[in-house]
Write a structure and sequence with these properties.
- This protein is 86% helix and 0% strand.
- With 180 residues, it is mainly alpha-helical.
- The protein has two domains: 41 residues; 97 residues, no CATH class.
- Helix 4 runs antiparallel to helix 5 and helix 5 packs antiparallel against helix 6.
- It is elongated.
Length: 180
């Protein structure tokens, strides 16, 4: 038996002789009936509280997503703002132009637009991995622009893009020769 139950049992004789006055129960029920709007307003309040909590959660998620997106864009912009010396920039530009011309060659070798879009999509998927590694290298380069290994890694990333395109062109040439 709990302490509370024991106290009630021991003190029962003290409280039993004091009954409420006659009509107390009716008066109490009338008071409860006089304020019928009390209970529904609590339910409406709970509903509004739930709506407010849901909105707060959605706004928080939106703010976190916005911060993440703007941070990613600012990091990308920082990478774009890297200044290279003239010779290094010309090497990077050479490989970018070579990759663009290879992409045009791939489009010419694809016999129909459906195949061209399929091949282009496959090439772009392979480029995504190269671009991710390139962005990481550029971020490191930004911290240490005199590091020759980082420069070599950037050039190798550009070369890898061109190599991927050369492989695609070679496969398209083989496929076209088998068709004709």
């Amino acid at each position: 038996m709990s302490i509370l139950e024991e106290k009630i049992k021991n003190e029962k004789a003290f409280f039993d002789p004091y009954e409420p006055t006659p009509g107390h129960r009716e008066k109490f029920i009338d008071l409860l009936d006089a304020e019928p709007g009390l209970q529904p307003s609590i339910k409406i309040g709970n509903m509004w509280l739930k709506i407010a909590a849901t909105l707060l959660i959605l706004i928080s998620i939106g703010a976190i997503a916005f911060n993440f997106i703007t941070e990613s864009k600012s990091n990308a912009q920082n990478v774009l703002l890297i200044e290279y010396n003239e010779d290094f920039q010309s090497v990077l530009t050479y490989y970018d132009e070579k990759a663009a011309s290879k992409m045009q060659e791939i489009e010419k070798l694809s016999p129909d637009s459906e195949q061209a879009s399929h091949v282009k999509k496959a090439v772009l998927q392979q480029f995504e991995d190269i671009d991710i590694s390139m962005a990481a290298i550029e971020k490191d380069y930004q911290k240490n622009p005199e590091n020759e290994k980082l420069k070599a890694a950037m050039i190798n990333s550009k070369r890898n893009k061109v190599k991927v395109m050369d492989q695609v062109i070679q496969q398209l040439n083989m496929a076209n020769h088998q068709l004709f």
